[in-house]
Records
---
Amino acid sequence: MAALGITVALLMWLATLLFVTIWKHIYSSWKLPPGPFPLPIIGNILQIELKNIPKSFTRLAERYGPVFTLYFGPRRVVVVHGYKAVREVLLQHKNQFSGRGEIPAFHPHKDRGIIFNNGPTWKDTRRFSLTTLRDYGMGKVGNEQRIQKEAHFLLEELRKTQGQPFDPTFVLGGGPCNVIADILFSKHFDYSDKTCLRLMNLFNENFYLLSTSWLQLYNNLSCYVHYLPGSHRKVLKNVSEIKQYALEQVKEQHASLDPSHPRNFTDCLLIEMEKENQSAELGHTLEDAAVTVADLFFAGTETTSTTLRYGLLILMKYPEIEEKLHEEIDRVIGPSRIPAVKDRLQMPYMDAVVHEIQRFINLVPSNLPHETTQDTIFRGYVIPKGTVVIPTLDSVLFDAHEFPDPYTFKPEHFLNENGKFKYSDYFKAFSAGKRVCVGEGLARMELFLFLSAILQHFNLKSLVNPKDIDLNPTVIGFGCIPPHYKLCVIPRS
Ligand code: HEM
């Protein structure tokens, strides 16, 4: 009996040794960037703090350098850290790194639409979307007018609070939501519309859940976690509900489509889709159109909405900055004219504050995952086709040389000695290169116009002593999510 036990133990030990040897062999068979040695099955998961993956990346970059390899279970990931390396990946080797790494929580969108598309339709869908968004942005009613019109509704909604404390999440969200809903479906929601509130709630809940530790685990180790209970199920359900809403809109518009008079982005997409179907090249379906529309709808709402919400919290902590903004607005725009894009040139302080808000809040710290489209030689390493690559954005936004004292909110990071706006190539909140944010122009315009309009008409009042406002995000993952708060807005005249 004892002999059998010893034999089994010996065999198990030999099997483990063999497994580790084969693993080591596979691991070293490519000239991959350096990194901690991965354990079988779990990879480097023990070296990563799931509550703050960006921080773990920074720590590992100090040890292994600006380009390093990690294993999340069996998933190989190359992390790129710091301005020079991130720029090289996104701009110098843009084609090789332009794939999209899989995000299992968005499985219903996989290889369709724009954001989560790593398939052959991505390039055309992206190109078409950019052109059509540009046309709508510059059309008879351009984006400037669209946002200005929406600013009136937003201000009206803020007035209704009558100086009482309120949670700004869905009031501020209503602005960007209506701007993109107008472009996509020619729709305008009332701020108390149940469908609109439901959609904003889904966007908001998903952005939060996607940034929790559990979803970091799910997105990187879905093969092990998928069948367990947990909040990934809620995220997947929400993604499907948003897609279902987009599909209903697409179907409704398809039923009343007049190809000679496109009414909005969705009409243009349907017309393009029918053209393509005639040549039977891409085989788009209404579902594909729904994914593109859903991508633009939630990306176009939640990012800008969260930035505005975080921005107001920051301004409440620094009343002296808010004061300077009021002064600039009063001087350049005055009390009643709605802010316009042309004002930006004469408002360097507001321009700098908007940039600094985006830099400081670090909305998407680790970017969206990219993927190599072919075996790629990068800085002497060989990165196999299909490897997930993370060109981190926080490593650029918090560069201590470019932005001294990077963890402090300072509009001066974007101002020169004469108080003029100072451009920085390190401002990469929208990423860069082939996958750069499709809505960058729209988002920048919204942030400037909405913030200017709010501060033109209201003083912000915190419910706690400004010094006690905590600006740290509640969770850090897919995004950096601001703390939950209430405020009062007091009319200025
Ligand atoms: C403050 C606002 C915003 C921020 C900070 C932001 C940030 C980003 C980032 C970091 C990416 C990933 C880029 C990459 O993979 O390298 C991205 C992609 C994207 N964004 Fe935005 N975004 C914002 C607003 C918007 C808006 C308003 C829209 C829609 C109108 C939009 C649509 C998209 C789309 C479609 C992609 C996917 C591009 C692709 O994969 O080819 N975003 N955004």
Note: Residues 100, 114-115, 126, 180, 295-296, 299-300, 303-304, 307, 363-364, 367-368, 429-431, 435-439, 442-443 surround protoporphyrin IX containing FE (CB under 6 Å).
---
Amino acid sequence: MRITVDRDRCEGHGVCETAAPDLFQIDDEGDLVFHLDGHDIPEEQWAAATNSVLTCPVAALKLEK
Ligand code: SF4
């Protein structure tokens, strides 16, 4: 499973951080930090990752299986 971020859409709401705090963080500037953008996500994070995709209010996260 992979997730990509549409940086043009992302508004830094941080809902994804709440859903998957081990994957997403909002930095001091209010920008999203996601080190696994486009890379394989560890299986133990799949449920949280899926939640983040489903709850992003602007649909900035895209799931690829
Ligand atoms: S929830 Fe969506 S808009 Fe908010 S920081 Fe995460 S990816 Fe960006």
Note: The mean pLDDT is 96.
